[in-house]
Amino acid sequence: MEETQVKKNEDGKKVEDEVVRLRRQISLLPAVSFIIGTVVGSGIFIAPKGVLMNSGSVGLSLMVWALCGVLSLFGALCYAELGTSFTKSGGHYLYLLETLGPLPAFLRLWAEFFFIRPAVTSYVALAFGRYVVEPFFAPCVAPTVLIKLVSILGVTFVVAVNCWSVTLASRTQVTLTFIKMFALVLIIIPGVIALAKGQTTNFENGFEVDSLTLDRLPLAFYNGLYAYGGWFYLNYVTEEIINPNRNIPLAIIMSMVTVTVFYVLVNVAYYTMMTPAELLLSDAVAVTFANRALQGLASVIPILVALSCLGALNGGCFGSPRMLFVGAREGHWPPIFSMIHIRRHTPLPAVLLQYPLVLLMLISGEIYQLINFASFARWFFIALATLGMLVHRYRFPQHLRPFKVPLVIAVTFTVVCFFIVGLSLYSDPWNTGRSCLLTLTGVPVYYVTVYRFRLPGRLKHIFNYCSMQLQILLEVVQQEVQTY
């Protein structure tokens, strides 16, 4: 329960509206919009190429899309149980902390800050920049520098919105979600009409597996799961959801079923109007599709896709800092990250201090490498979180669980995640190996800074001085009341 009995009276105490804390402002519609708006980003407009490239045929690629949707729904249901069992915000980090202990939780924070969030934000931002810039240069190749500059502007915009106001960020997400669903409908309708007229050439012999190699199949799933990525973001903001025991499971189920149906239909529409070879040659699948099927509206599609990417950026920028915020509150991350702006009531340091690393990776990264680079660590920790849920069920059977996912779903999801993560080390050892090594670099940091604080006194003094100056500059303080 929220402790909000803070009033301002003759004794000079603060009224509730003036208390510095994160408020419960997210109802069911914003929660659904938050998930859909974060999931439906650049993925459905970029990943079809990666899924087809690694699956080898139209039929198998459609199966991958459907199975990724089912797998994501299974994972989302597991997180619905976790989100209603543990009432704090923080998502993956909090669940690892509660079920498997502080070291895995700290490593999740470490990976999130230093490469998962920068990589995820970068490849969505690069997709945004590409869809904004390329129509102006077609049929020529757009300048890479200009694409990255526009990408930086997109990231800067969503960071500014999330620093300014939680309400503004929430309303922006709802608006952009409706726009991106309209974009998907605009793609689906001409595809379904063409299919009804008998345009099925590209589906003939759809399950030819001559070009399929089992070592590349996990990469097909990675690309598909990347497009579905974001179903877990609502769990980052549990403390800001109105009636979380009802709204978290409802929002997750409604949004993931909707997204899966739309994604499969969009891919069917792509294959109705484009051959597999044409799809593989396109870096902007939705634009190629629009030029073929929506000639009168072809110029509108890139704008809609860019806004869709912006919505995914906004959702990520809204959710991910809450993990760092909770980690700092639990003593596993620098205290400055657990502070809130005194007037805006936003976790401004957690939002703002990720920005430089995002820019660095955005400038130096390439989109498909970034997907594989971030996916290993992200899915490894998701698998660990659901494994932790199963361990916690066994150890604490009496723990209150307002929503309980069937055991077969939890076990299936956990096993499949570990299988995909393990096989990916064989499929793409360079990017997944780097991701694994970077995660493990957090182990000595944990033992030096968290397990037993062993930094020299002079370094501690410098660190505390810098934190104090940042606090003054950003006008932030610790929460004044408990919100869980």
UniProtKB/TrEMBL annotation:
Task: Give the main localization category.
Answer: membrane
The way it spans or sits in the membrane comes to: Multi-pass membrane protein
Q: Name one GO molecular function term.
A: L-amino acid transmembrane transporter activity
- Alphabetized Pfam families for the sequence: AA_permease_2
Entry's Gene Ontology cellular component terms: membrane
Keyword Ribosomal protein: yes or no? no
**What keywords are assigned to this protein?**
Membrane, Transmembrane, Transmembrane helix
Where does it reside? Answer: Membrane
Listed name of the protein: Cystine/glutamate transporter-like isoform X1
What organism does the UniProt record list as the source?
Answer: Betta splendens
